[in-house]
């Protein structure tokens, strides 16, 4: 229903964010596991490396005209919007459950 570039932007943006969240989860899980507690410097270094790689990927996708920038923005926002909507749904369930 949309142009191929816009659809690719949504797909690639969603993939970038999903992979970033998964890698962040793995980094934090390893950092806080008791036998292997990592320093905050190592966690921050991995974060900035991941941030830089994501920036390079986004730059290449836009500069090579593989995706439309607006579609990429929508794709990058998918996870955040999903988290906000899930939180709002849970809050409304709690509020209406207590009201009954």
Compute the number of helices.
3
| H-E order | HHH
Low-confidence segments, given as residue ranges, are: none
Output the radius of gyration. Answer: 18 Å
As a percent range, the share of helical residues equals over 70%
Percentage of residues in strands? under 5%
Domain count: the total is: 1
Number of strand segments: 0
SS-derived structural category: mainly alpha
The end-to-end span amounts to 43 Å
| Biggest sheet architecture | none
Question: Per the principal axes of the C-alpha atoms, what is the gross shape?
Answer: flat
Integer average pLDDT: 92
Description:
The protein is mainly α. The chain has one domain. Helix content is 84%, strand content 0%. The chain has three helices and no strands. Helix 1 packs antiparallel against helix 2. The longest helix is centred in the C-terminal third of the chain and has 31 residues. The radius of gyration is 18 Å and the shape is flat. The termini are far apart. The mean pLDDT is 92.
């Amino acid at each position: 229903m949309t142009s191929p570039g816009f659809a690719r932007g949504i797909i690639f943006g969603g993939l970038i964010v999903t992979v970033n969240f998964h890698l962040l989860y793995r980094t934090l899980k390893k950092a806080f596991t008791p036998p292997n507690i990592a320093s905050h410097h190592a966690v921050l270094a991995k974060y900035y490396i991941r941030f830089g790689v994501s920036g390079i990927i986004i730059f290449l996708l836009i500069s090579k005209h593989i995706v439309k920038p607006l579609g990429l923005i929508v794709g990058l926002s998918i996870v955040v919007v999903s988290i906000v909507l899930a939180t709002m749904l849970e809050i409304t369930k709690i509020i209406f459950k207590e009201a009954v």
